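Tokens for chain A. Residues wanted.
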């Protein structure tokens, strides 16, 4: 039978085995199904065809990871399955750009050779990596530090409740409504952040403090730890960085205890770290001399900043704060060696050309999340300036910008994936720029 047929049959068989209490057998079948994914031969297909097939396999890796823990397997084993079965399209892009990335990390063409545990732990040298996974089987956080890879079961992170909250989050701000609707959404958001803290983030930070991986006191202690968050499935849109109680004086929140970053997969983090972020150092503007996945900057010293403002967009609401935002940045950088360019009347083609010659890019515009996540876009202008045109996530991810260091998206929905069945691919505007 074709691999896709065998994978679907394996999922059904695994559920029946789980229902009968045969967790180890269920785990083995799901692991075999994940190992079949490279046999589907996605690499040579067009992006939309890849997405269609992967939508049929949605949730396979997360189910396999959950069942591995249910069967008593180690956290490293569970994490390996998540990395092998998620972010596959991103992984293809990374592999095509960097032979070094493939050799040093996961290669989807060789699922029998996962990275060793100590290699994964080394990736956490700048701070813990936390992966939240919630399925109908169970919910867990996999915690990667330099000393261990462990799992923490999260009984309060109920699967059905998580889906309910993520659906509410996706609909905040949608539809007509004035101040009353905004107040209702704000109340729901506060409730969501409290739930996310109690069910997921709070227990993990307590665990990290008890193990000594982070220092108790967080920001108040003067040394907040950097944490990288990964949400699996619908949790990929969860605001872990903002979880908790934000009433006056409260420290029961992420912001008081850690500095947060998001990554689609650990493989993507490894790839990003091949270029050290060094725009300015003590001796002035410079770039890392470390080997890079891209060509070295072309003999230039001063970082270049590209500002892309869209205060008015045809057919859309005006953004009155954009001009002030851009002016503030321009004034601030005028006192530094940063060379700043403001791109007037930006079109997608013009932006794609200019990005390749700048180290920092700052967008201030409308962002839209599409049901096809590769078609999510930033709204710019048509060449005649009379209409709106789309800078697509798929086009952004195809750029190979040799000087790229930092992208700032002052735009709505930039980290939102509206396709639930493609949530594990983590395709949105922010992840497109991370490549």
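Reply:
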């Amino acid at each position: 039978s074709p691999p896709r047929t065998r994978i679907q049959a394996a999922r059904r068989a695994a559920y029946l085995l789980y229902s009968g209490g045969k967790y180890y057998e269920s785990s083995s079948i799901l692991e075999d199904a994940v190992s079949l994914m490279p046999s589907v031969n996605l690499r040579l297909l067009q992006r939309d065809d890849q997405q269609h097939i992967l939508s049929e396999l949605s949730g396979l890796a997360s189910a396999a990871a959950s069942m591995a823990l249910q069967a008593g397997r180690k956290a490293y084993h569970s994490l390996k399955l998540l990395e092998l079965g998620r972010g596959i399209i991103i992984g293809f892009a990374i592999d095509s750009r960097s032979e070094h990335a493939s050799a040093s990390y996961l290669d989807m063409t060789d699922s029998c050779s996962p990275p060793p545990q100590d290699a994964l732990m080394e990736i956490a040298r700048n701070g813990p990596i936390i992966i939240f996974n919630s399925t109908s089987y169970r919910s867990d956080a996999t915690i990667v530090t330099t000393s261990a890879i462990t799992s923490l079961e999260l009984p309060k992170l109920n699967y059905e409740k998580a889906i309910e909250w993520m659906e509410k989050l996706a609909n905040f701000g949608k539809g007509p409504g004035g101040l009353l609707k905004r107040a209702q959404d704000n109340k729901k958001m506060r409730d969501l952040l409290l739930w996310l803290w109690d069910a997921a983030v709070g227990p993990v930070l307590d665990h990290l403090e008890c193990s000594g991986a982070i220092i108790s006191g967080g920001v108040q202690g003067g040394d907040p730890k950097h944490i990288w968050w990964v949400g699996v499935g619908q949790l990929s849109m969860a605001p872990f960085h903002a979880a908790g109680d934000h009433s006056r004086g409260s420290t029961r929140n992420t912001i008081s205890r850690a500095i947060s970053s998001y990554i689609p997969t650990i493989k993507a983090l490894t790839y990003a770290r091949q270029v050290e972020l060094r725009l300015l150092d003590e001796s002035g503007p410079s770039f890392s001399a470390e080997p890079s996945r891209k060509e070295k900057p072309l003999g230039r010293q001063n970082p270049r900043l590209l500002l892309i403002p869209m205060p008015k967009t045809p057919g859309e609401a005006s953004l009155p704060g954009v001009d002030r935002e851009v002016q503030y940045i321009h004034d601030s950088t005028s006192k530094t060696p940063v060379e700043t360019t403001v791109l007037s009347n930006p079109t997608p083609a013009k932006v794609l050309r200019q990005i390749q010659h700048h180290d920092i890019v700052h967008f201030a515009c409308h962002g839209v999340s599409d049901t096809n996540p590769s078609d999510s876009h930033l709204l710019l202008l048509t060449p005649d300036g009379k209409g709106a045109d789309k800078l697509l996530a798929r086009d952004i991810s195809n750029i190979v910008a040799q000087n790229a260091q930092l992208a700032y998206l002052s735009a709505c929905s930039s980290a939102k994936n509206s396709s639930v069945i493609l949530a594990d691919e983590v395709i949105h505007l922010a992840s497109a720029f991370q490549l």
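Residues 119 and 185 are 43 Å apart (CA to CA). The domain at 302-434 is CATH 3.40.50.1460 (Rossmann fold).
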